[in-house]
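#help-structures

NK: newbie question. if I give both the sequence and a SMILES, will the prediction place the ligand too? trying with fe (ii) ion
OV: yes, paste both and it writes out the complex. here, I ran yours:
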Amino acid sequence: MSGPALRVYDSHRSIHEAAFGQVKEMTAIIKQLYNENRWEEAKQAEEILIEHWYDHIIAHADSEETGLYQDIKQRQPEMVETIAKLTRDHDLLRKVLEEAKHLLEDNSEQEERIQLYDSLLVINWQHSRDEEKYLLL
Ligand SMILES: [Fe+2]
Ligand SMILES: [Fe+2]
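OV: that's the protein plus ligand as structure tokens.
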């Protein structure tokens, strides 16, 4: 979706809602699998979750930074600081996700990674609401 199309509130918000619902559900399934001691399935589900974050949420953030955010900065120079804050949220998501990925590769305790998956959900939820509030028509 290009810059101008992402400015439409309903379509952009529904992208946020759909992606958030998916990763929230996947995180809940991972917790359930660990509760049932289904280790192998849980680890596979974690790999799928991390991939899903990259393919949906991070890809969305990348496209905002090269499209929507540039478009807004050009039209409304007073929004530069808001855009910088929203971009920092994206960077936090990237950093936390990268950490979760490394911990999974290093076979850390799963509780450590689950905390990170929960953090990603919180950051993403707050970020989406701010983006909808400040940027969308
Ligand atoms: Fe965003
Ligand atoms: Fe967005």
